[in-house]
Specification:
The chain is of the alpha+beta class. It is 33% helix and 24% strand. It has six helices and twelve strands. A hairpin with a 2-residue loop joins strand 1 and strand 2. The structure holds fe (ii) ion (FE2).
């Protein structure tokens, strides 16, 4: 099993989160709790999260998430990971959608735990503020690598195992091309390093755009609400 070389990456702490976004999340939590305690009788209204999150297209948002320092340390770690683990296509996906990736839960559990902490304490409150939905259960958290040699282009798809997908570029400016296309809405150019693009991936058909040169590295979160899925399953059987 891969052991993280830089222990800062595996610390369950908020040092790696953009300060303004972190503060907005903290300031929004009382309103989220009040909404949940009220059992949805009253609308949640605007929260401080709405000041840091920007809408790009309907239900497609961006937010500054990770500090640049975290992204540069993670890029250094990826060099070690490439040597020890290597990027592999996900055999569970059909061939057109396979992107070389490192699945953190399988290969780098320390990093998986620190990213899960970010999901629970930063991303999930953001989803609550924007959609009044919980989505705190990672289906997969992975590092994806788009490049010309291995996989030029994704193809149109829904991320069927996740309700919400979050894509964070780690090295914007170090490659040419890339970005995400959304059916019915248009294209989104690569966001600055550390900024998160998030959207309901079960409903929004999308694809990665071709990288023309260089390597594009992304941190990708596929998230869902496991309790909702268990509840649905129990109703069916
Ligand atoms: Fe996707």
């Amino acid at each position: 099993m891969y052991q993280v070389k830089n222990y800062l990456l595996s610390m369950q702490s908020h040092w790696m989160i953009n300060h303004t976004t972190y503060q907005a999340v903290q300031d929004s939590v009382p309103k989220i709790i009040k909404f949940k305690a009220g059992e949805g009788v009253e609308a949640m209204g605007k929260t401080p999260v709405h000041d840091v999150v920007k809408k790009i297209h309907p239900d497609i948002y961006k937010v500054p998430l990770f500090r640049r320092k975290f992204c540069s340390l993670l890029m250094k770690e990826i060099e070690h990971m490439k040597r020890e683990i290597g990027f592999q296509p996900n055999e569970d996906e059909d061939e057109l959608r396979q992107i070389p990736e490192i699945v953190l839960r399988d290969h780098a559990p320390e990093l998986y735990r620190s990213m899960w902490f970010v999901v629970q304490t930063v991303l999930n409150p953001i989803f609550n503020a924007i959609w009044q939905r919980d989505c705190a259960d990672p289906a997969t958290i992975q590092i994806a690598n788009y490049n010309l040699k291995d996989k030029k282009q994704g193809s149109w798809h829904h991320d069927e195992s996740s309700d919400i997908s979050v894509v964070v570029p780690l090295n914007t400016g170090k490659y040419v091309g890339g970005g995400t296309a959304f059916h019915n809405y248009g294209e989104v150019a690569p966001l600055p390093t550390g900024h998160a693009l998030f959207f309901p991936s079960f409903t929004h058909l999308h694809k990665g755009l071709p990288v023309e040169s260089g390597d594009r590295y992304l941190l990708v979160f596929w998230l869902n609400n496991a309790k909702r899925i268990v509840d649905l399953y129990e109703k069916i059987i």
